[in-house]
Amino acid sequence: MTFGKVIRQSRKDKGFSQRELAHRIDVDFTYLSKLENDRSEYPPKEEVIRSLAAHLDLDEEELIVLAGRMPQAYEEFLKQNYKTMPALLRRMRENPEFAQKVFEAASQGE
């Protein structure tokens, strides 16, 4: 699912109109419409995503990643490991079995 589809479906599940949710997260309803239709020119700011997640009972970090952003909490880690991250991501893309093992190990930690 895309960021917009998740937002739209969650909003509908909660019974909010676009105008009502937009008011709650302090954005214009036309902007929320663009987000829901995946037509925004850029990903929303992290605080907008976190507000959406809070009002829609969604996982903040998952929603941030789905929006195409990196959670600020991980930026320092990425900066410290900037040389090895491309190799890791390339290996995961080229070897789905390895990627699955990484994802399984990450899931066990939660």
TrEMBL record:
Ranges for domain HTH cro/C1-type come to 7-63
Instruction: List the Gene Ontology MF annotations in alphabetical order.
Output: DNA binding
Which InterPro entries does the entry mention?
A: Cro/C1-type_HTH (IPR001387), Lambda_DNA-bd_dom_sf (IPR010982)
Concerning PROSITE patterns, the annotation shows:
HTH_CROC1 (PS50943)
In Pfam terms, one family for this protein is HTH_3
Recorded protein name is: Helix-turn-helix domain-containing protein
The organism encoding this protein is: Oxynema aestuarii AP17
